[in-house]
User: Fold this.
Amino acid sequence: MTTDTSDRILSWHSNPSKPRYTPPPGAIDAHCHVFGPMAQFPFSAKAKYLPQDAGPDMLFALRDRLGFARNVIVQASCHGTDNAATLHAIAVSEGKARGVAVVDPAISEDELHRLHEGGMRGIRFNFLKRLVDDAPKDKFLEVARRLPEGWHVVIYFEADILDELRPFMDAIPVPLVIDHMGRPDVTLGPDGADFQNFRDFLQSRDDIWFKATCPDRLDPTGDPWHDFARSVAPLVAEFPDRVLWGTDWPHPNMQDAIPDDGHLVDMIPHIAPSAELQQKLLVTNPMRLYWPEEL
Assistant:
């Protein structure tokens, strides 16, 4: 794979604004990534996109600028099942980061233990065909049954396959976290078919969590993403103890519509208008999943 930086995608804002909104003390960006640095942590030969380096130094500088205290770093698909870059970022975070891994379903118990010791607290299953070539549900289910105590499964899919995935997700014996609410059509409002279906899914189990994230991906009207706020706020209000938030920095494969991370933070009071909701969204809920030993 080429290392020419001219061939690699820049997907983040080079000078994000300082948010007007101030997160509560201890706030956690619960969905972000690191890319490389490629010279130290090469990208997968199967990667569907080739990003520019976005290492932990850049991530933690952004964290401080946006007013957050901790990060949950989700293994990016461009690194495949080699979690070295994410583990490195956690290791240099001074205890301020935890992670979600992507693993080969045949992973050994010893390797799962090593990931746990390195700060991982979950694994991610990706069902977006444009990002992965194969998503074997039977093998995913097998590894989900072998996870260390306290781990969860993160699942990324699009709304049109939610019903198809329900039997598989129902069989997973650990808590679930749904990335970006399963990518619903936010233009149809909170009573649209995608949100109704997702709401029914959330009501089916009390250990399904979701990330109220990515207005830049989901709202075609653009910044300031009014359709996203109008559709997502009722879901946050209905499930306040099972919702997380994150920047999605450095916004994988978003080179055509790069969001301002300061504006993303300023969306928070539009989906969680009260101080109580904001505390749950940004502090209480992610602490329960990723730092329960500190509660």
